[in-house]
Amino acid sequence: MIVLGVESSCDETGLALYDTQRGLLAHALHSQIAMHREYGGVVPELASRDHVRRTLPLLNEVMQKATIQKQDIDAIAYTQGPGLAGALLVGASFACGLGMALNKPVLGVHHLEGHLLSPLLASQPPEFPFIALLVSGGHTQLMRVDGIGAYQLLGETLDDAAGEAFDKSAKLLGLPYPGGPEISRLAEFGNPGDFTFPRPMLHSKDLNFSFSGLKTAVLTVIKNQTANICEQNKADIARGFVDALVDVLVAKCLTAMKESGLKRLVIAGGVGANRQLRAALNAVAAKRRFQVYYPELEFCTDNGAMIAFAGAMRLKKNPAAATRDYGFNV
Ligand code: KG4
Ligand code: ZN
């Protein structure tokens, strides 16, 4: 079965073809980062219009890469939500229009399920069950995953997501959008301990997170600087911020691993690309004797491959999950 995946929830247009027998056949992505950068964040109207421009050329690109015909597609999976309404509408209309034209069934996929399953696209995927830390721009969640569709939410952020904290703190430091990779790069040059930030909810007995106070702490430190902040100061603040955030994420993962007794931890979502987080998790996993799995770097942030894959897994489990009723909700 070959599934076409269409992702358009935010500022990336991603299309991909996943074959349940041969694996990922092709994927193509257009990132709108350069377009949104001058505004310091995603402009929803511009995002929707750009998805309209990009979707069809990206479809042609994956068809060519996979060397298949459109009639070879068995089903079309599109990101149903959550995301920007206009941006989601583009992907949903495209998928349903194409489905209708080809007489192929369509199915809406939850964006977070796409992220959650993206590590399974790796060459050495984890087996079920596992604990998953889902850290993206909009969400921070710990889940227990027992199989496709068998997800139990263990904890989540009570306010800002980890990626949001990265982006907002980076903005305060004058770094371009998206701030996550930028602040991470800068932190490499910072001195550990020069700025110590709070570790929100580190000792709460649950698996929830809270990151909005961390961003406020960064703002306070910046405001309290009497002289102009020099580059080294910025790097030191970035380092303090990243260390605090990573400490909390790692501690909560450890608690989830301990409480569940499971031996596999899976990281998914854009912040999963963060090198300080990966280093800290790898170190702790080696010590506590559990395995950590990450998606390929290119599949940490939004992409069509994870939507094609999640759609294919859903269909494998339940062929009736896709429909030829082409009305849709986003
Ligand atoms: O998963 P994603 O592409 O989109 C959402 O579904 O939200 O995640 C985007 C988020 C942004 O906040 C971005 O700053 C963050 O992931 N991010 C990173 C890194 N790469 C992307 N944060 C920290 N370090 C990175 N290397
Ligand atoms: Zn995402």
UniProtKB/TrEMBL annotation:
<keyword id="KW-0479">Metal-binding</keyword>
<dbReference type="InterPro" id="IPR022450">
    <property type="entry name" value="TsaD"/>
</dbReference>
<feature type="binding site">
    <location>
        <position position="115"/>
    </location>
    <ligand>
        <name>Fe cation</name>
    </ligand>
</feature>
<dbReference type="InterPro" id="IPR000905">
    <property type="entry name" value="Gcp-like_dom"/>
</dbReference>
<protein>
    <recommendedName>
        <fullName>tRNA N6-adenosine threonylcarbamoyltransferase</fullName>
        <ecNumber>2.3.1.234</ecNumber>
    </recommendedName>
</protein>
<feature type="binding site">
    <location>
        <position position="302"/>
    </location>
    <ligand>
        <name>Fe cation</name>
    </ligand>
</feature>
<comment type="function">
    <text>Required for the formation of a threonylcarbamoyl group on adenosine at position 37 (t(6)A37) in tRNAs that read codons beginning with adenine. Is involved in the transfer of the threonylcarbamoyl moiety of threonylcarbamoyl-AMP (TC-AMP) to the N6 group of A37, together with TsaE and TsaB. TsaD likely plays a direct catalytic role in this reaction.</text>
</comment>
<comment type="similarity">
    <text>Belongs to the KAE1 / TsaD family.</text>
</comment>
<keyword id="KW-0408">Iron</keyword>
<keyword id="KW-0808">Transferase</keyword>
<dbReference type="Pfam" id="PF00814">
    <property type="entry name" value="TsaD"/>
</dbReference>
<keyword id="KW-0819">tRNA processing</keyword>
<feature type="domain" description="Gcp-like">
    <location>
        <begin position="24"/>
        <end position="309"/>
    </location>
</feature>
<dbReference type="InterPro" id="IPR043129">
    <property type="entry name" value="ATPase_NBD"/>
</dbReference>
<feature type="binding site">
    <location>
        <position position="274"/>
    </location>
    <ligand>
        <name>substrate</name>
    </ligand>
</feature>
<feature type="binding site">
    <location>
        <begin position="134"/>
        <end position="138"/>
    </location>
    <ligand>
        <name>substrate</name>
    </ligand>
</feature>
<feature type="binding site">
    <location>
        <position position="167"/>
    </location>
    <ligand>
        <name>substrate</name>
    </ligand>
</feature>
<keyword id="KW-0012">Acyltransferase</keyword>
<keyword id="KW-0963">Cytoplasm</keyword>
<dbReference type="InterPro" id="IPR017860">
    <property type="entry name" value="Peptidase_M22_CS"/>
</dbReference>
<dbReference type="InterPro" id="IPR017861">
    <property type="entry name" value="KAE1/TsaD"/>
</dbReference>
<dbReference type="GO" id="GO:0061711">
    <property type="term" value="F:tRNA N(6)-L-threonylcarbamoyladenine synthase activity"/>
</dbReference>
<feature type="binding site">
    <location>
        <position position="111"/>
    </location>
    <ligand>
        <name>Fe cation</name>
    </ligand>
</feature>
<feature type="binding site">
    <location>
        <position position="180"/>
    </location>
    <ligand>
        <name>substrate</name>
    </ligand>
</feature>
